[in-house]
Amino acid sequence: MIVTARELAVLFVEALDLEDIDPQQVDPNASLFGEGLGLDSLDMLEISLVIQQNFGLKIKADNPDVEQIFGSLENLANYINSNPTSSA
Asked: Given CB 3.0 to 4.6 Å as the disulfide criterion, which of 36, 61, 63, 70 pairs with 30?
């Protein structure tokens, strides 16, 4: 199964109750944190849990690439697609 950035946007908007954000309008290359979607570290934990529950992929905070992985929806989708059953 190939995961797209758009599918992740829908999943995250629902999981994080981001009622004021239309997932279809989210730029897949925008930063998830700070200036982009404006998510914070608690949101990152929630996203990690959603990824683990939906895709069976555990992304650990001590992963040296964690900032890049969570850099954008596109980066995250690429990571999920490249690591479908492994633990990171």
From this structure: 36
